[in-house]
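Explain this fold:

***
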Amino acid sequence: MRDRPESWPVHEVEDVWSGPAPFSVRRDIISAPARPDLTFGRLVIDHPGAVIVLALDDDDRALVVEQYRHPPQMRLVELPAGLLDVPGEDPILTAQRELLEEGAHTADEWTHLLTAYPTPGLSAEKHVYYVARGLHHVPDRGGFELHHEEADMTLSWVPLDDLVAGVLDGRLADGPLALAVMTYRMRGY
């Protein structure tokens, strides 16, 4: 069993919203291939996607960020991550940049962990996950300056086992963090 590309007919597209955010919203009027006369609307969030980095040191501690997120009104424990907002850029380059900017580290080894669509009912947003090892601290973040919520972000090193336990008992609820640490653990690394 595997996912496969498929595209249903789009009869009309209405731009619902666009602005300074890294996404826009549209409404597609579509139909099933077997019933082209029966149309219906679907809202679509156009989002560039993101990378998530599970950066692990030699003691299997993960580099995590704690950051305020306004929509859930929570300070979440997360992994370094960022938008795929440079058109045509290879996701591994985005991941390397985000680890430097958010995590103040570079890595010698990069391994693709998984790729997932977090909300396929609303968006084609794709998350690409990497494991980074052979870490090196870069105190000045390569000259990157943190703004807004990122300026209040803190970094910590947390044993991977503690993150797995936190996900399983509900103390840690960030979806990308949960997917990354559980996938890593299930793969037996």
Q: What stands out?
A: The radius of gyration is 19 Å. The helical segments are 91-103, 160-168, 175-186.
